[in-house]
Amino acid sequence: MRKFNFIKTSIEGVFIIEPTVFGDERGYFMETFQKNEFEEAGINEYFVQDNQSKSKKGVLRGLHFQYTHPQAKLVRVIKGEVFDVAVDLRKASKTYGKYVGAVLSEENKKQLYVPSGFAHGFLVLSDEAEFTYKCSDFYNHEDEGGIIWNDPEIAIDWPFKNDEIILSDKDKLYKKLSETSTNF
Ligand SMILES: Cc1cn([C@H]2C[C@H](O)[C@@H](COP(=O)(O)OP(=O)(O)O[C@H]3O[C@@H](C)C(=O)[C@@H](O)[C@H]3O)O2)c(=O)[nH]c1=O
């Protein structure tokens, strides 16, 4: 029996992944990652770091990447609901500068697989959200990069208005994609 449904998106290599959920009188059980099925779907990653964050409503974390140690990410929500975004930064890609957006929630249990060569970010839609993800390379502070969340050329259709959005000081300072030199 298959444990995951891999749904292709408008960007090559990005998948929405739906788990098979086994409910019973105790609650539920699901697998959240399994090497064999992911590899069959074309996702060949060796994940080396797992992260978790909690954020309040309106918090937008992103759009982040690492310049020379890019991280593929497998992301999901364990509490609440977010709008999650992956922006294609792969120079040779026919969807360069385009994005995929998906609502991920505690309820729908969907995951987003974001390959290396993407910027990633999310906006919290619920009162609070706990977010967890696997990464294919280690965090490297010196290597961190980002793109401003409201870059008009990417034109992400965030579900909240500008004045409802809470950013870190670092995320406020990022520039547009056209002013950022990446090498993916
Ligand atoms: C991301 C990260 C942060 N930190 C530390 C650095 C800092 O003191 C504190 C908070 O870091 P940040 O503000 O960068 O956290 P955050 O804004 O949540 O950064 C994350 O955003 C999402 C969208 C991603 O895709 C991730 O890859 C990562 O960039 O945690 C680590 O120690 N390891 C890590 O892997």
Automatic annotation (TrEMBL):
Q: Name one GO molecular function term.
A: dTDP-4-dehydrorhamnose 3,5-epimerase activity
One GO BP annotation of this record: polysaccharide biosynthetic process
The protein's name: dTDP-4-dehydrorhamnose 3,5-epimerase
- The keyword Lyase belongs to this UniProt entry's keyword annotation: no
- Quote the gene name from the UniProt entry: rmlC
Provide the organism lineage as a comma list: Archaea, Methanobacteriati, Methanobacteriota, Methanomada group, Methanobacteria
Q: Which reaction does it catalyse?
A: dTDP-4-dehydro-6-deoxy-alpha-D-glucose = dTDP-4-dehydro-beta-L-rhamnose
Q: Which UniProt keywords apply?
A: Isomerase
| NCBIfam families listed in its UniProt record | rmlC
Family from the record: Belongs to the dTDP-4-dehydrorhamnose 3,5-epimerase family.
Q: Which residues act catalytically here? A: H64 (proton acceptor), Y133 (proton donor)
Q: How does it assemble?
A: Homodimer.
Site label Participates in a stacking interaction with the thymidine ring of dTDP-4-oxo-6-deoxyglucose, positions: Y139
Q: Name one GO cellular component term.
A: cytosol
Report the protein's function: Catalyzes the epimerization of the C3' and C5'positions of dTDP-6-deoxy-D-xylo-4-hexulose, forming dTDP-6-deoxy-L-lyxo-4-hexulose.
Q: What Pfam family is a match for this entry? A: dTDP_sugar_isom
State its Enzyme Commission number(s).
Answer: 5.1.3.13
Keyword presence, Transcription regulation: no
